[in-house]
Structure formats: C-alpha cells, structure tokens
Design brief:
308 residues, alpha+beta, 7-stranded mixed beta sheet, 7 helices, 7 strands
Length: 308
C-alpha cells in the first residue's frame, strides 16, 4: 500500500505522484514493487536490504540515490514479546523521497497527523529523515512507559505469589529493552553519519539536528535505566525463590526428623526379641506416649532454632 504525500503546512495526500512528493509505502505488494523499480527506478538492492528484519541503521549510496535505514518500534505479539523494532528505509535523490517499511506501524500515520496539527512544513529530504527519527524517539519513550507499567504490574503479582508465568513475562520485557537499546544506539550513530553526509549542504538544520539528538539521548538513557531496574528486580526475585526453596527444604527435613523418632521406636519394639514390657498391661500406651513426647521435644527444639 502506498500513499503520495505533499508538504503543504503538514502532509496532504495526493491522488498521484508528483515531483518532490513523499511516497510512503507500507507492506509493499507486487504492484508497489513494480511501481518503485520500473517507474521511479529505485534500485532493487535497496528494497531487498529494507526487507531484512535484522538490518541495522545505516546509509548507502548508489548512483544519485541515498538509502537511509533506521529502526522504529512497533507493537507485536510474536512469542509473547510486546514490542519489537523493525527497519524502515528512506530512499532519496534530488527529486524523489520514498519511505518503505515491510510492517504496518502506527508511527508513520501519527507522524503525518502531527505535521497537520502543528502545520509543520518539511523543506527537504534531510528534514524528513530527521523528523522521522525524532518521531521514532518519541514512540520509543511512549512504549518504554508502557513497559514500565507492565513491570510494575508483574512485580505486584510476584509479591503475592511467585509464578513462572510472571517471571517469563519479565524476561520477555527484558528482551524488548535489549531490542530498544540496540536500535536507539544504532539511530544515534546514524545521526552522526547523516551530519557528515550533509554538512556541506544547505539541507542541514542544526537546531532540528540538536533536537533529534537530545530526544534520542533521552530515549537511550531511559531504556538503560529501565533495563537496570528490571535486571535488579529479576535478580531479587531469583534470590527470593532460592531462599523460599531453602526454607521449604529445611522444613521438610525438620518434619522428616520429627516423624523419624516414633518410627524408630516402633521399629525397635516391632523386633522379634524380648522387650521387657510384654507383661506390662499398658505397654502400648506407654510406647505411643513416649514417641509423642520425644517428637514434641524435637519439634520444640526445631522451633527454637527456627527450623520450623
């Protein structure tokens, strides 16, 4: 699916492509691929690179074309991981600006609506690239807040009862933070690469570049803080689980020793030998009472040393 967007105090959708028009392509099909390669003459290698879900943020040039790949966050239910990052490629030359993403995300549509609400005019290709990176940083922060809320919820559930499901939930959130950390760091490196490419042109808006760098830095610091907190939380609960197991084993051992005493006495008096109590009329009651007293003394002693 492709849209033709033209900057007029915010992006306005057009019915057909025009020069200096932004072509936004999401989840491209065969018709979109044919339009890009045959009508706009986009290098096929660029589209293949963007299709790689593990592609890192980078730039590449071919003839007069510039490919800029960055990573953006999106919601996902793959393997129970709530958020992942996917590559989006921005392909530009002197007249054409194309963005291609093989996943449907909320970020691009929100970015277009934001330019309309704020009457933002995008003056050139670098301006668009920087604003998309800025928007990705905003969405990283938005999803990080949701992750923090989910961590807090999982912590409350674990305080009531430690279950494997809650621990696995925290582990998947930690994976998400690792994805975010790597992607944000890659986008930061990409900013430096773009600065070098456009430093001698009139495309470079230093104020916008500084704003993007600050927003990315904030996202990077935030993801590191949340990652450290989550790591500490998982380590703490791992220690709690270990302590609980030790306490249970200690109680089970104490119980086994307590019950072993009457079993031992019954074993002795169950032997086929003289026990010197066979003529005693209350021998059975005496043996049972002796077992109970010894077990009770053992129990009291274990309680005193806090084994029960």
């Amino acid at each position: 699916m492709r849209k033709y967007l033209y900057s007029e105090g915010g992006f306005v959708e057009k019915a057909a492509w025009e020069p200096n028009c932004w072509v936004n392509v999401e989840c491209p099909d065969d018709d979109d691929f044919k339009f890009l390669t045959e009508e706009l003459k986009v290098p096929e290698s660029f589209l293949e690179d963007i299709a790689d879900t593990d592609e890192r943020p980078r730039t590449e040039t071919e003839d007069n074309w510039l490919l800029t790949i960055l990573r953006i966050p999106m919601q996902s239910n793959q393997h129970g991981i709530p958020f992942i990052t996917v590559p989006i490629g921005i392909i530009t030359n002197n007249e054409i600006i194309i963005s291609v993403c093989y996943h449907h995300t909320q970020m691009i549509s929100d970015f277009v609506q934001h330019t309309r609400r704020k009457n933002i005019s995008v003056n050139n290709k670098l301006d668009l690239i920087l604003r998309i990176i800025y928007s990705s940083a905003v969405w990283f922060l938005k999803y990080l807040k949701q992750i923090n809320n989910e961590v807090s919820t999982a912590e409350k559930e674990l305080e009531k009862s430690i279950r494997n499901e809650d621990l696995l939930r925290l582990m998947k959130l930690q994976k998400t933070l690792v994805y975010f950390n790597t992607s944000i760091r890659g986008n930061e490196v990409l900013i430096g690469r773009l600065r070098n490419i456009f430093q001698d042109t009139n495309y470079l808006d230093k104020d916008l570049l500084e704003d993007v760098s600050i927003e990315l830095k904030q996202a990077y610091n935030t993801v590191n803080i949340y990652s450290d907190i989550l790591t500490g939380t998982m380590d703490a609960f791992a220690s709690i689980i270990s302590n609980n197991v030790n306490a249970i084993m200690k109680r089970m051992t104490s119980l086994s020793i307590t019950l072993m005493i009457p079993t031992l006495i019954a074993s002795f008096y169950g032997m086929n030998v003289d026990i010197h109590l066979e003529n005693f009329p209350h021998a059975f009651v005496f043996i049972v009472a002796l077992s109970i007293v010894l077990s009770a003394l053992t129990f009291v002693w274990f309680r005193k040393i806090k084994w029960f």
